[in-house]
Amino acid sequence: MSVHVGNSETAATFPQAAKELLGNAQLRQNVRRATETIRNKRAKVVAEMPDWEDLRNSAQQIKRNVLRNLDTYLEQFEARCAEAGGQVHWARDADEANRSIIGIIEGHNEKEIIKVKTMTSDETRLNVALEAAGITPYETDLADLIIQLGDDKPSHIVVPALHKNKTEIRQLFLEKMGLTELGTQPEDLTAAARSYLRERFLRVKVGFSGANFAVAETGSVCVVESEGNGRMCVTLPDVLITMLGIEKIVPTFDDLEVFLQLLPRSATGERMNPYNSIWTGVTPNDGPREFHVVLLDNGRTKVLADPAARETLHCIRCAACLNACPVYRQTGGHAYGSIYSGPIGAILTPQLHSMEHSQSLPYASSLCGACYEVCPVKINIPEILIHLRQRLVESGDTTALETLEMKVAAFAMASAGRLGAAQKLMRIGQPFANMMVPAWTNSRDLPAAPKETFREWWAKRT
Amino acid sequence: MLISLFIACYNDTLFPETGKAVVSVLERLGHTVEFRAAQTCCGQMHYNTGYRPEAVSLMRHFLEVFQGAEVICIPSSSCVSMIRDHFPGMAAEAGLQNEVAELLPRVYEFTELLVDKLGVTDTGATYPHTVTLHTSCHSLRSLHIGDRPQRLLRSVRGITLVELPASDQCCGFGGTFAIKNAAVSTAMLSEKMQCILDTGADVCTAGDNSCLMHIGGGLAKQDAPVRCVHLAQILASGISDSKILAS
Questions:
Q1: Which of A268, A300, A332 is the last residue of a domain?
Q2: Looking at the predicted structure, is the pLDDT value of residue A46 above 80?
Q3: Is B214 on the interface with A (CB under 8 A)?
Q4: Using CB atoms, which residue from A330, A373, A445 is nearest to B220?
Q5: Which of A83, A128, A300, B230 is the most exposed place for a label (fewest CB within 10 A)?
């Protein structure tokens, strides 16, 4: 098994990457502006739903049921999809998934594919594998196109190019699309992307998509999006390949009712996505003639095996937690070293890797709880962050100094007598304190130790 | 009423004035305060940093110390949140479910105790300052403390209360986060300090000295003209208390 999550194995630690990004004023301004806009839109459309909490609870129950019976629902999906003319492939890890996909494309002697909903394929590094096999991938989601043209990395789960502003995107289009003229308005930029992409939509014979949901009872796949480019990708090509993580299954078609209300309001602050595509297998003379589904594990069954962190797999990738997170707000998504950024990335990436990589991520949170508050499927992210910290401590993957400090503190707190002694020591040590914790005192003064502690005052008083 | 005070380890060590203020307010309201001297810490720092067995030991000690206490007052939302949100989970593995179940209904954050249990919104305080209230994440999202602090502050004589913009944003403390991710923590703090300075307040208050230590430390580093003062100290201001004056 070789689990990849994008390039996160080689990423810098969160504190290192964050420190660098904090110096980028333009990026920070872009991130603040964009997340505030989405957050405010979300708050407005969530407030108008009297049954929002009921929807969240329903979603949580549905997801719990799915994860308890995942094997059953996956096999049901496979059977229904096959009955409808689809072909299902199982992939244990990223490499297996990529090999399946390349095999299908090579089977048709094609050298190009158009792509949409590309995040899961970023997880498996599909584009790198395709290029190595001589196949050219074209991203068609506008933001993913911006990332691809700029040889950049996504910084947000829903709005991958959120760290770029209009001016930066215009410059990129001018350079990479071979344009001599381009207006400055958003409409000009989308028009340029439209003509760039339209030609490829009509020419390329193989389409690739990720998916938002897959329905076990009908074998259907569902993609929601804002641009219509996804609709083009899943309807125009002769061959369509969809890859989805095994946790994307919902049991029944009716269950979509819950998620199609929660997802757009949480993700983009829209009441409904402009494009909702749901298809089942193949239909003669309508859409692709051949349809493949790749069901990807890539570490997900390991997450499933940990009861204390299992609900990480509830995630529907709405990114509401990113927009609400005060840490993400400061750094943007690149600091997380993974395509999955923000609070959900901080719990998902290390778990997919079985904690071999990304060990600084569970600490990339002040545990303020804003993520849990907005999560439409009620993932208790702070609790899972703490659980992952516990796993790191148990496995000995912490610094010797921290372990020593924590043991000393626990020793001192074990009885009031020891605590009193430690307090006296602290008072003696006060002149040295500033030198001992520069990470604190570079930006914050330490409080002066009082002449007497509360317990000393109380003892004198009575 | 006999009220047992859990002062919180960092208040005991660094912010004794907060504890004295709690005692002053409660005694003025006619209650008797006891301080069980064997108390130490709720275990939050260990729990949140991933040192669960150490946190379980501290929970066990807490349960022993406060056995039989009818009402426990804690002037720290984050400790109350630790007890309410995490003691039950740890109790199961430590075989202390009954003890924790009996403890929880007796634990009150300071403003919960005043408003809910004692029915008090006016402590008789006088505090002629312009004050803004920082809402700590634990009081906001774990305790759902609501407007209890505002109701108490509005009754204070001479006070001018000004609203803090973006009050639902974390100040960036987060315990060991402030050290492990010092740069991000400082960036979060900078935004919080700017919001506070923009209010024109001369005092920033909260129900948690942990946030106030962070915010106050940042303000002091910049020589900013704003002081951080725990809510209990405002609610005790201008109250004459012979015992406190004598000390």
A1: A300
A2: yes
A3: yes
A4: A445
A5: A83
